[in-house]
């Protein structure tokens, strides 16, 4: 395995995931080119070259991809036809266009799990309100838009009493599971076929915004459940058959079953604690996968908790972080702001990672931070 410099890496998307990748890769001999439709995106001032443009436009993505040897994503909502054309011309696209096309459509995702006998919740595909009504006996269920849903948007709980609120666009109805815990496994694969999986983390959700409130590493599960979760996650990546980094979100049911919820073909919110809490972070392994380098250890160094910093309800506009300096004075506390200039309710503006001796200490500290820190606007 050789390391060839210098590499130009094109990233579709300029959000916080791309920003943290660039931060992790600063010691490598690479240039980052970033495409995003927001000229004030978090990557704007860190990348070597920035271009404003639509990630969904064929010509824009195709022309941008020609600038680099390696092309990757930090959001799955991109034009896969352009990526496929670039692959045909010999460009290295990680993950490959087929994988992105499958994952960006939640209906195709579910069909993929079903085809490969990967345990997941039962589902029904719908294209209209009338089709939802015809499947009323399937409720209660979660309805998810098949495409363009993100960070809790495009997802809603449906039952017989609110069926008229159903999305009319192509969607899937996903049977409600009897969930004990929501957990996640991040798996990385390089082009040589080497894989590495991170220890299972446990996710606690903010019900108001349907996104992660905080996560704890390691998850409070049995050794058998840990092994099973990793086996399922590795099977997902094996069947996707592409290098890259993949976050497999899972349900642990009260009956003890482990089911795949969704897969993200990129770094993920459920891996942010790895920056301080593991020997290598998800971003360290992402850059190694892109360059086809040995991956390295994912072992936990100390128990950790990642708390999302999100925009407070009732505030929109130029961001102001209230009481942030008080958080800075706490020991074993690491603040990551994403460089977003504008806040709005529920928007991810950063995260805080806490290190501690055990789960109880971490949760107590997280609740204290939540009571102090507020993301407001001028």
Task: Give an account of the 3D structure.
The chain is of the alpha+beta class and 378 residues long. It has helices spanning 16-24, 58-65, 80-88, 97-103, 106-115, 129-134, 223-240, 274-277, 282-290, 324-328, 359-372, and strands at residues 7-12, 30-36, 49-52, 70-73, 92-93, 123-126, 141-145, 155-158, 171-175, 179-189, 195-197, 201-206, 211-217, 244-253, 258-264, 304-310, 317-322, 333-337, 342-343, 348-355, 374-377. The strands form four sheets. Strands 10, 11, 12, 13, 14, 15, 16, 18 and 20 form a nine-stranded antiparallel β-sheet that branches. A five-stranded parallel β-sheet has the order 3-2-1-4-5, covered by helices on one side. Strand 14 and strand 15 (258-264) form a beta hairpin. Helix 2 (58-65) packs parallel to helix 3 (80-88) and helix 3 (80-88) runs antiparallel to helix 4. It starts with 6 loop residues before the first strand and ends with a strand. The mean pLDDT is 95.
